[in-house]
Structure formats: C-alpha cells, structure tokens
Amino acid sequence: MTSITPLTSDRFRTPAETTESGLRELIAIREIVHAFLTADQPEEVFQFALDRVSPLVGASFACVYLIDGASELMRLAAVHNWPERFTPFLGEMRVRLGFGPSGEAAAERRMIEVPDVTSDPSLEDWAEVANELGFRAIVALPLQTGDGVLGAVAFYFERAGMISAETRSLLRMVADQMAATAQKARLIDDLRRANAALLESNAELERQYAALLDARRVKDEFLANISHELQTPLTAVMGYLSLMEEGLAGPVTPEQRKHLAQVKTSSHQLLDLIGDLLALTTLKRGGLEVAMSAFDVRNPLHEAISATRGRADGVALRVSEPEAPVMMVSDQRMIAKLLIALLSNAYKFTSSGEVRLSVTTCNGRVVYCVVDTGIGIPESMQQQVFEEFRQVDGSSTRRYGGSGLGLSLAQRLAHLLGGEIYLESAPGEGSTFRVELPMGQE
C-alpha cells in the first residue's frame, strides 16, 4: 500500500494544545473503560466508543464489524456518523474476511493503514466508494482476544495522511476494549443459555421426580393390595393343611404326612414373605401405628426365637439376656418383628457355627444384638443391604434365596421406634447387627 507523508495538524500543535488533546483522550479512555465495565450489551459500548473516539482522532465516520457465527463474513454491529442517505442499507452490509482493509485486519490480526485510498493501486475498486462516501484514508484494527478474532473496527478520514503515534495508541486501546467487551458479552450470553438450559433440565428432573413418586405410590398401593389378597386364601390353605395332618379329612400315611409338612413349611415361608411385604408397604405409606406399652425387654427376644424358622442343623443358637426383668416403653410387637427379620437373615447366611442373640441396656437405651458366623458382607454393600429387594448377590443364580425385604423392614421399624441399626461385617467373618432403641418414649 502507498505511504504518504503525514500532513496532519498534530505536527503543528503547541504544547498547550497537545496537553488539552491528551486530557480529552484520557477522559475518553476513562469513559470507554467505565462503559466496558458496566454494559451488558456490546453494541452499547461499540457505539459509545465510536462516538467518543472518532471526533478525537478526526475520523469522519467509523464502523464495527463482527464475525457472523462460523461463516467468513462480518456483519455491521455499530456505526458513527455514517452518511444518512446510506443508512437504510447498513443492515445488509457484509465484509468478507481477507478482503478490504477491515477484512484484512481481522484475517491477518494486525492494524491496516491506508493513507490514501485513491492512490493505492490495490484498492482501485474502493476509489469510487471513497469518492461517493467522502473519505480518503482508512485505519482498520482487529478485535481480538486470547480465544481468537471477533471482528474489526474501521475509522474513515476525510483527508489523506498517516495518523500520529498517539492516535495509533489510542485506537489500539479502543480496539482492545471493544474486543474485551465482545468477549464479555459472549461469555454472558453463554452463561445465560447455560442457566436457561439448567432451569429447563431442573424442571424436567422435577417432572420426572414427581412421576417417579407417583409410580412408587402406585407400586406400593399395588403391593399392599395384592399382599392382602394373597394372604387371605393362603391362610385358608394352611388351615386345610392342618386339618389333613390331623386326619380329619381321612387317614394319612407317613409319606403323605411328610409331604404335607413340607407343603405347610413352604406355605409358612410364603405367608411370612407376604406379611413382610404388607408391613413394608404399610410403613412406607405411613399407615403403621405404634402401640406403646410397658414390657420386659426379654419378651420380644423370646417371641423372635420362637417365631423364627430356618436355622441349619449345624448352627447353635446362644442367647444372652438379663436375669431380672428390665422394663421399657415401646411397641413390643414391632420389636419382635424387627428381631425376627434380623434372626432370619442370620439363619439364612450361616450354614455352620453359631448365632448369638442378646439384649442389654446402656445409657437409657436398649441394645439388641444379632451376631452370626456366616458369610459376611463386603463394606461396599453394607448400606445397600438395607434397601428393599436388594441382596449382596442379586443374580438369578445366587446361592441364597429370599426377597431382600427383611433388613429394609427391620431398619424402617427401628426408625419408626426412634432407634437405629448398626452393622459390622467382613466377608468370611460373619456379621453383627446392633439395634439401639430408647427405653422410654412419649
């Protein structure tokens, strides 16, 4: 591009004029920085900067171009003092990267100075435009940040000539502030979109959570209803089995009596399972009421021992309890059911050794302990075993059967009574379930 010796008035300024001009530039810089810090919309800062800086540097008019998305075109984002007869066409104005002073400034990331458009052979196409719009010189600067180029800002001068070093520094500062503003606005827009997406995601999660709660409610209602419906005919079946065992329906051979005993045992197991399922669903729906009464802490222990089946022949049961009565106020029936669940769990997973059942008192609390020498529970599974329908081995080929309801039911009963269950276990070393309950409740 052709270089022309500067003929601006800067060379002929007196010291007073230079000081006054510098003061105006400092004021403009301060105002632009303040606008940058306070404005959310970059177009506001662009317009403000162009309006304040253009008169200081002697530009007839100025433009800001921003890269339009992923395209190679830049759209007009702000203008200063553009000839009025051309303003209807500003919205359609586009500049291609690499073409013209503004396009070159953005593509090459450097300031482009054209001292005289009419004398530059490479800008022959611009001569007619320059004459029509009334400018001779152009200075274009890239709007760039650490992340890349955002666009360009161009200043158009009525007279030909190079700009001064002070003006060049001022324009660079303005371009940097504009780029930072555009970057800030882009980050704000990204944050707003992210917040909007997060709000929508939260709303969707809330809808899904409400649907999940409704599905759980329907499931619990179904389980409660079906458990009740199964319990009635199964109780009748067990009654008929007892009549047959007693021979009231006719003579029974020893082989038949053996088979009837097996059927009755299986029926008892099924009835216990239905009872656990019904109790658990009732607990979850808040329909199980606590019946408070005063009783000996040993009574629930004895009930659990007499009601729990399934202990293997090679497993010894050892019981430790106070010699004298110790009274507590709670729901004896719930405590017995809780202990039955823990004792059944110990029997199921202990094929040899022993199961110890004990009750003690400490610091105003009653402590029931069920200790077994069974297979134990890995630490990673010790919280999950209290979830309903969960077992350590949940595969279809697991060695130990069961529904996975017992420990969940026991924990819910303990919480309902104001207590807690603590578990200590290790694989191959057995398990210890410690139930702590208050001795007295209001």
What is the structure about, briefly put?
The protein is of the alpha+beta class.
Could you give the topology of this structure?
Elements lengths: L14 H24 L3 H16 L3 E7 L5 E8 L13 E3 L3 H9 L3 E3 L9 H10 L3 E9 L2 E10 L7 H81 L8 H31 L8 E4 L1 H10 L7 E6 L6 E4 L1 H17 L4 E10 L2 E8 L33 H11 L3 E6 L5 E8 L4
Parallel strand pairs: 8-10
Antiparallel strand pairs: 1-2, 1-6, 2-3, 4-5, 5-6, 7-9, 10-11, 11-13, 12-13
Helix pairs in contact: 1-2, 1-5, 2-5, 5-6, 6-9, 7-8, 8-9
Helix content: 40-55%
CATH class value of the largest domain:
Alpha Beta
Give the neighbour order of strands across the main sheet. 3-2-1-6-5-4
Q: Give the helix/strand class.
A: alpha+beta
Taken together, the total number of domains comes to 3
Instruction: Please count the helical segments.
Output: 9
Poorly predicted ranges (pLDDT <50, ≥5 residues)?
1-17, 394-398
